[in-house]
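Researcher: Quick test of sequence recovery. Tokens follow.
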């Protein structure tokens, strides 16, 4: 779809990638409904994009179903024809992660985009043309130590997007997936950044990811993975799921190095 015809509901709009995408879309002529939890941040972004003619806001917590459904109602009434799911939460670290963190990341990264998409589908299917873009991750197609839970959410999102695209094929709604590699935003805390450095993981600028998302929306391709050699690794891993099992020793070492109680305990055992 041409940007001038887009009315985009953008979740995670105040985030690192979302903010850059909001600026790129607005500069290309799209209109935006900016969603996130921080109303002040959304409002500041909307003002910087040219005010209500170009961008409006709707604060919503995607982990609260009533709030999510209010957002869907607002977006439909506003006339959205493009949904970009860019909200997300990280979960980095060796298993076991706290159960509350597993729930948070599954709710935010997988359940929320599914619920929001479902809630908006009747409206989107009534449009002459509509698009739903999920922001996934390379880690959704390539299992990497330290990202089991996060990768599970993005792998689930990828499966959902692929099946839904096939389910809706031939209709007006085009379903798409962008899978960025590591990106320099506040999403990655110091520990993740240190791990990325130790393992030689390349990081992209959020503006580059936003540019790729805009290109994908305009050319309406189904899926795109960002980065080389990540694209090759994803392809190999898809065709031969155990082939790369042996190449993650450096990653395991970097994970173990940050684990305070790694290795056998040096504490004296209590007497039986
Ligand atoms: N950065 C990376 O390395 C990387 C790599 C690949 C894929 N991704 C994916 O790209 C997307 C954007 O990431 P980013 O780097 O821009 O992260 P970010 O800067 O942390 O932004 C994420 C946004 O998600 C929103 N969010 C989180 N929980 C929410 C909730 N319960 N309800 C509503 N909004 C919520 C936050 O909004 P508020 O806090 O303002 O509410 C925040 O603005 C995510 O889906 C992420 O998984 C990131």
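Model:
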């Amino acid at each position: 779809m041409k940007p001038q015809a887009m009315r985009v509901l953008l979740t995670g709009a105040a985030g690192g990638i979302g903010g850059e995408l909001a600026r790129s879309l607005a500069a290309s002529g799209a209109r935006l409904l900016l969603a996130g939890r921080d109303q002040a941040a959304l409002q500041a972004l909307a003002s910087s994009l040219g005010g209500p003619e170009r961008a409006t806001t709707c604060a919503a917590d995607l982990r609260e179903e009533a709030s999510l459904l209010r957002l869907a109602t607002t977006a439909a009434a506003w006339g959205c024809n493009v949904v970009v799911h860019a909200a997300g939460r990280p979960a980095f670290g060796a298993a076991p992660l706290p159960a509350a963190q597993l729930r948070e990341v599954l709710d935010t990264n997988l359940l929320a985009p599914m619920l929001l998409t479902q809630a908006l589908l009747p409206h989107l299917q009534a449009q002459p043309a509509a698009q739903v873009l999920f922001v996934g991750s390379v880690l959704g197609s390539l299992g990497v130590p330290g990202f089991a839970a996060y990768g599970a959410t993005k792998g689930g999102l990828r499966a959902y997007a692929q099946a839904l695209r096939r389910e809706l094929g031939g209709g007006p709604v085009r379903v798409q997936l962008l899978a960025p590699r590591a990106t320099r935003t506040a999403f990655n805390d110091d520990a993740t950044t240190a791990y990325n450095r130790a393992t030689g993981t390349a990081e992209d600028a959020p503006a580059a990811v936003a540019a790729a998302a805009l290109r994908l929306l305009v050319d309406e391709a189904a899926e795109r993975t960002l980065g080389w050699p990540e694209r090759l690794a994803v392809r190999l891993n898809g065709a031969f799921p155990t082939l790369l099992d042996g190449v993650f020793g450096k990653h395991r070492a970097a994970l173990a190095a940050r684990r305070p109680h790694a290795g056998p305990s040096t504490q004296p055992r209590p007497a039986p």
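The CA atoms of residues 138 and 179 lie 5 Å apart.
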